[in-house]
Specification:
Helix content is about 35%, strand content about 10%. It has about 90 residues and is an alpha+beta fold. The protein has a three-stranded antiparallel β-sheet with strand order 1-3-2. A hairpin with a 3-residue loop joins strand 2 and strand 3. The two termini are about 30 Å apart.
Length: about 90
């Protein structure tokens, strides 16, 4: 992980001025292309160029991921309210 809380890109920058294809973005974030497609369907910022070409502005997409999928860690002594037997 890097200082932004996301997985660091696997490859060097592609020189696309901060844009990546779905395949490049998926590879850099270590997820499947289908996962990126699902994120786009749920509102991740992207540019549709023509019939098939999709470009993702990495800075905006990373911000969207942080805002929508941030992991909040609970303290180790956390116990949910309610029935204590339900947690076992």
């Amino acid at each position: 992980m890097n200082d932004t809380g996301l997985v660091a890109p696997v490859t060097a920058a592609t020189g696309n001025d901060g844009f990546a294809s779905k395949v490049e973005y998926a590879k850099n974030r270590r997820v499947s292309v289908r996962t990126v497609t699902n994120w786009i369907q749920h509102g991740m910022p992207h540019l549709k160029c023509g019939h098939r070409k999709v470009l993702i502005e990495t800075a905006k997409a990373d911000g969207w991921l942080r805002g929508n999928f941030e992991v909040i860690r609970r303290p180790s002594n956390y116990r949910p309210r309610g029935n204590p037997e339900a947690t076992r």
